[in-house]
Specification:
single chain; 770 residues; alpha/beta; eight-stranded parallel beta sheet; six-stranded parallel beta sheet; 13% strand; globular; binds glutamine; binds zinc ion; Cbl-indep_Met_Synth_N; Met_Synth_C/arc; Cobalamin-indep_Met_synthase; zinc
């Protein structure tokens, strides 16, 4: 009998209960017991939802108060000693690692966060060292299982696998070898997993889901022998537990050659993201009795699943396995944590549009329907028919392409991607036109998003003030921002972005082709959630989006006013893309809309524009062999958006901290006149990558951040001067711009004024002394 399962569920609660409770706890408004009560209610509520949708196997242990990787670090005692010795309660020690702790004489910074594979979720990096003593610091995975079992659920505990956990980690400051191969600690960690598995078995678990997404990475191949020894250890020590080994977000490719011989009872593959890789896996397992869990329903998008198509895949697999339906499970491709909670919370979308979507709750229903259809088609016939109608309606809608947009993309010529002259020529023209001093100073775009700005926006959205009143308010804000920058003596000014709720949502709302949710919250990290716009049709720009504001801002000053746009790749990567056409095509459509905007800015007299691409790096596919095709369209899209203007236009781009070591050529290939990067905390690592021995052929002008915008701390003039000095040494005086790490929207005016005053003073000195 084919069973259905989901690999994990959003943690936020249907009405953001968990987020609210967390924030209340952090600001001392509620006690720990109240927070834990809300968490428990939400866990049980999740199980109820999954079960009521008809899913057979319910995952436990995927709920977390911050991050599931941090949960496992905590469980296995991967706790840096400063936190372990802090004297805080276990809960507060956990939160101290997650977000830092500055209270009652304890001063601990947050641990490092990194992006979770190719998603916009962030995990906390396990900090490992040679003498770390792995042990069970708590029994959360067992407790969660027992809680669900006692409430009557047939649960399958979920663990992150030991190889993936170590691989995700880094050498801590306590490590003797800073380049420690973290997976080398496996021999010490595996026995602690055994202990945990024994406890789960004793508590009554028969199956355990163990996530090893590292198997979808090129690195996975390195660990064949570690996989063998570890999973053989588990099977021999805890034979009563059946392991479902799970992979997601990509293809296992050749790794299946050793995975197939592991003593596991089940293997899960992400069919949705790599449909063509399925056959290889099925053949590898054909002569075994391993259960294959088919991730047919996407855990990453919001589109209704084409159940007929999925069912066909499942039936083919069953046939290839000699008609043994019991060897197939139907599942979500990954945890549903990357999708919003339920479409039931959407009141503003039209019935037509809402019918295209499935959020986490509805995806549970899809998984259950597929399994039911596989078991006994008659029990699912009605549901399949309803689904077929929805899919057809969506397909019919998709046929309405915007032919003007499609034709324009098809007509893109290679020269459309190139500026008129090479950088060396542009640079001379621009320095004259922009009249810039040596070491020009600028900022990254946003200035404080004050309470007042947010409250006026809310009032406007509620209809309490009209358009004219709101725009007047924004103009006053801009005028204030301009005056403050002039007083500081900055060279290239910005308008401050007061009109933007979010750097992607703002553009999505002004472009045709996007839809927005009221409650489509997706976890970014901890209690931080975003509501990605959804690309539903061809994207075009009905009218200029930012020209009015940039032009107004420019009218207030003789200094250069920099236009401010979000780049095509970032708009796409931070949205839910459509499923029927390639990301390449979607990104080019957005790029053309932005290209028109850049040209309109130039016509309006703007001579500098910044096109932010902070999400370029995270869109990289998991497998290096797929990188080229992604980077080609990503780079082309950026160039397309920026290249429509004359040589006089200074085009900048901006990246927040990303490890560009392995794809720096793509950043150079953007051919932006200037790029700014987050730098102040990265020990020059990033800086060196951007310059290094490729200094001359590499990047054009560069503005490595000289102070940390995440912190209220004012980096003193001397400290910023030292930074500038080092930057000039590494990059060369002529290429350097001076700016902060990123936008200043999360700072107060008092903080950022002091920070920028110090930056300007340090620059003055650098101009004289360097
Ligand atoms: N222009 C944006 C800002 O200053 C850039 C934000 C980002 O890089 N994440 O806020
Ligand atoms: Zn940034």
């Amino acid at each position: 009998m084919a069973a259905s399962s989901v690999l994990g569920f959003p943690r936020i609660g249907p009405q953001r209960e968990v987020k609210k409770a967390l924030e209340a706890y952090w600001s001392d408004k509620i006690q720990a017991d109240e927070l834990l009560k809300v968490a428990k209610q939400q866990r049980l509520h999740t199980y109820e939802i999954i079960k009521s949708q008809g899913v057979d196997v319910i995952p436990t242990g995927t709920f977390t108060l911050y991050d599931h990787i941090l949960d496992f670090s905590n469980t296995f005692n991967i706790i840096p000693s400063a936190y372990a010795k802090s004297g805080l309660s276990p809960l507060d020690t956990f939160f101290a690692m997650a977000r830092g702790h500055q209270k009652g004489g304890v001063d601990l910074p947050a641990n490092e966060m990194r992006k979770w594979f190719n998603s916009n979720y962030h995990y906390l990096v396990p900090e490992l060292h040679e003498s770390l003593e792995f042990k069970l610091n708590n029994t959360k995975p067992v407790d969660d299982f027992v809680e669900a079992k006692e409430a009557g659920y047939n649960a399958r505990p979920v663990l992150v696998g030991p190889i993936t956990l170590l691989w995700l980690g880094k050498a801590s400051r306590e490590a003797k070898n800073p380049n420690l191969d973290t997976v080398s600690l496996l021999e010490k960690l595996a026995p602690v997993y055994v202990e945990l598995l024994k406890k789960l078995a004793a508590a009554g678990a028969d199956w355990v889901q163990i996530d090893e997404p590292v198997l979808c990475m090129d690195d996975g191949a390195k660990y064949a022998s570690q996989f063998k020894s570890t999973y053989e250890l588990f099977a021999s020590q805890v034979p009563e537990i059946k392991t479902l080994l799970t992979t997601y977000f990509g293809r296992v490719d050749d790794n299946v050659n050793f995975v197939k011989d592991l003593p596991i009872a089940g293997f899960h593959v992400d069919v949705y993201s790599a449909p063509n890789a399925l056959n290889n896996v099925v053949s590898a397992f054909a002569n075994k009795d391993t259960v294959l869990s088919l991730g047919l329903v996407s855990g990453r998008n919001i589109w209704k699943n084409d159940l007929a198509a999925s069912l066909k895949i499942a039936k083919d697999v069953v046939a290839q396995l000699g008609n043994k339906a019991e060897r197939v499970q139907i599942a979500t491709s990954s945890s549903l944590l990357h999708t919003p909670y339920t479409i039931k919370n959407e009141k503003k979308l039209s019935a037509e549009v809402l019918d295209w979507f499935s959020f986490a709750t509805e995806k549970c229903g899809e998984v259950a329907t597929l399994a039911a259809a596989l078991r006994d088609p008659s029990t699912a016939a009605d549901r399949l028919e309803v689904n077929e109608r929805s899919i057809k309606a969506r397909r019919d809608f998709e046929k309405n392409s915007n032919s003007a947009v499609r034709d324009r993309v098809a007509a893109i010529k290679p020269e459309d991607l190139n500026r008129k002259s090479p950088f060396a020529v542009r640079r001379e023209v621009q320095r004259k036109r922009l009249n810039l001093p040596a070491l020009p100073t600028t900022t990254i775009g946003s200035f404080p998003q004050t309470k007042e700005i947010r409250s006026q926006r809310a009032r406007f959205n509620k209809g309490e003030i009209d358009q004219a009143q709101y725009e007047k308010f924004l103009e006053n804000e801009i005028a204030d921002v301009v005056k403050r920058q002039e007083a500081l003596g900055l060279d290239v000014l910005v308008h401050g972005e007061p009109e933007r709720n979010d750097m992607v949502q703002y553009f999505g709302e002004l472009l045709d082709g996007f839809e927005f949710t009221q409650n489509g919250w997706v976890q970014s990290f901890g209690s931080r959630y975003v509501r990605p716009p959804i690309v539903v049709s061809d994207v075009s720009r009905p009218q200029p989006m930012t020209v009015r504001w940039s032009q107004y801002a420019q009218s207030l000053t003789k200094k250069v006013m920099k236009g401010m746009l979000t780049g095509p790749v970032t708009i796409l990567n931070w949205s839910f893309p459509r499923d029927d056409i390639s990301r390449d095509l979607q990104s080019k459509q957005i790029a053309l809309a932005l290209r028109d905007e850049v040209c309109d800015l130039e016509k309006a007299g703007i001579v500098s524009v910044q096109i932010d691409e902070p999400a370029l790096r995270e869109g990289l596919p998991l497998r290096k062999s797929d990188w080229d095709s992604y980077l080609t369209w990503a780079v082309d899209s950026f160039r397309l958006s920026a290249a429509g203007v004359s040589d006089e236009m200074n085009t900048a781009s901006h990246f927040c901290y990303s490890s560009f070591e392995d794809c720096i050529a793509a950043v150079f290939a953007l051919d932006a006149d200037m790029i700014s990067i987050e730098n102040s905390k990265s020990d020059e690592k990033l800086l060196k990558v951007f310059t290094g021995d490729k200094k001359d052929e590499g990047v054009n002008d560069i503005g490595p951040g000289v102070f940390d915008i995440h912190s209220p701390r004012v980096a003193p003039e001397q400290e910023q001067f030292e930074k500038i000095k080092r930057i000039v040494e590494v990059v060369g005086f002529d290429k350097v711009w001076i700016n902060p790490d990123c936008g200043l929207k999360t700072r107060t005016w008092e903080e950022c004024t002091a920070q920028l005053e110090a930056m300007m003073a340090a620059t003055q000195r650098a101009r004289k002394e360097l």
